[in-house]
Amino acid sequence: MVTRKNPIFDTATTLGKIFGFLGVSAICGVLVAGLLVPAAAVSGSAASGSIDFFDTLPAELKVDPPNQTTRILAADGSQIASVYSENRTKVGLDQISPFMTKAVIAVEDSRFYEHGGVDTTGIMRALVATARGNKQGASTITQQYVNNVLNANLAAEGNEEAIKLNGVNKGVGDKLREMKLSIALEKEFSKDQILEGYLNIVFFNRDAYGIEAASKFFFSTTAKDLTLPQAALLAGLVNSPSAFDPITNPENSKARRDLVLGLMLNQNKITQAEHDAAVATPVETKVTPARQGCAYASAAPYFCDYVLHLLENNPAYGAEVKERQRLIYGGGLTITTTLDPAAQASAQEQVNASAGANPDKWGAALVSLQPNSGKIVAMAQNTSFLPAEGGFDSQVNFSVDQLDKNGNDLNGLGGAQPGSTMKPFTFAEWLNEGKSMNTVVNASQRRYQLGYPWKNSCGVVTGAYNTAQKSLGAADDLQNAEPQFYRSMPVLFGLYNSINTATFASAAQLDFCGIQKVVDAVGLHSGLPSKDGEPNPKIDMSTLANLLGSTQTSPLTMASAFATFANDGKYCEAIAITSVTDQSGKQLPAQSPSCRDALKPEVARGVNYALQEVLNVGSGSLIQPRLSTRTNFPVAAKTGTSNLNESTWVVGHTTGLATAAWFGDALGAQNRPGRNLTFNGKFYESLDGYMIAGPMFSKYMAQMAPAYGTNPFPAPPSEMVNGTQSRTPAAPTVPTSPATAPAPAAPAPAPSAPAADTPGNGNKKDG
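Structure (tokenized):
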């Protein structure tokens, strides 16, 4: 504690306590009550009652840290955004300009370093002034600090209605309590600690709480670098932030500032020359708007919003949502995320370029993560979070589910129909059952009638494709995009050219229970709740239409599933938050990698082998610019397009990075056909996966994949590639294989044009 200048009357000394008690008890019953409510006649018995009441008041103050700004950081420590209920950044007294401390003491409490929390001299002065018709306050800086702390505690409890402003709606009991707490506070904390706390908690503006935020807001500087005129202005602002606002009331603000400067001169806190120079300085602000929230994120507003939803939905941050929000928006947290600013910038560039001005509001999204950890490195879409003239604004996140697994809101679109990007999972079960990828199947078969003998050891397969049975509930016969592919072909050929009838011909030889287990193991689920409200229900692979991707799935879910192939069969849940610390440095619950064995390594390797061919010679070879494993680094991917062309995809990976690129109808039911559209001056008769989603994927991966590792994929077992084939005369020869895997027995040239499949009646097609 600092040495008092007037120890006789100091409430921290024995004699001072006596005078203080008399001055604060006996006088408080009469003088203070008269000061606060001068119209009330207070008797001596009232004063005696005040003494008794004062004795019963608490003498302990819960001094919790006030609300502070929470920062959301990228993986490299750069700031993505800040969020707050009160814009405040705590600083130490050594980080505050001496001009500021001197100014606020001069105008608010000139005897701050002399009294013990309650200034009886000030009370007497205020009483006399009030009696003369010039009402004055008598609160010390300590009392003001106590008042602010009490209000902050009420706010932290969510009890804003009980907050009592300084001098407003306070009774005598409130003022007595404030005085007693101030006396007790001075016994526990030094003057410098109280002054520091006061300057960090006091209100300057609705967008500036505490001196650091006020310095930045009004002058675009720090509290440490405040000049004398700036400090005097802010010190004067405390009394009435509205009346003395330099932005809206510059004349009032200058008069108040000059008054503070005069007090500083009279109290020998500044020289005459400093005073004169400061008074001659015009009131000039340099405002830095306090733009908080993900809408003003420097990058990745939708990723930022996703992070906040994850925390708000986490019961580790409070039993109730309001409690969690108070901690998140007022706890001064530092939230470090997985986002890579370079990857985010590249992703944003690609989605922005996808559809130009886009007056019809077609959506683009790209999400990317690390296969071996699930860390999300980029999440971008072609919209603005806030309305922008001529732009496409949306607060909905195109990349994520509507709800989390517990049914909490994620503010997500809920995904889109993945089309033929679902085909690799049927192919994975084909390999899992020990079959060769070059086994020939009959892809000429287009009819699978009601009652077809599918195998499903854990349920019943539903659906049928038989135009003759449409009246009984069947869909039309299966369709491919091009007529030459209704023939026998190797399963591998059918996958990389995305032939619908080949997928069904292979499924006819599999146990659907096994396909279901593959889909579940890699985390695939619906992005929309079920009709009965179940969040993220399973994709039911016993429903035939789901072989071709009829259930809406989010880009993040698809990227995580394909990452399993890249990670040699291990599935890692997507994560966005690596650490959270509070303002004291305490670690709070965050996310850590959660991985599990999902597929046999050899199965994952076999799928990678096939998906490289998609880009080499299959449906992805039309993507421009082209990513070829023969001329660049190894990339595996699959294209996908829905039946109405309203949802188009490319999902793929290298060994170090998995990415889902989506382009389609982002409005409501997603039922606008993607046909006869023009984007960036180019007309599209029918949207296809390779056309817009393809370049998004290709350009992004070309830029970012090398930073995360582009090693060759491990080769699958030779028997998985070659196997023992049973060919028919109509079967085509086997296509060329990637260099990283054993060559098939009988290579043959690729088809002249990769095919896009077009089944009817709501079933999906590829691009």
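The longest helix spans residues 14-36. The radius of gyration is 35 Å.
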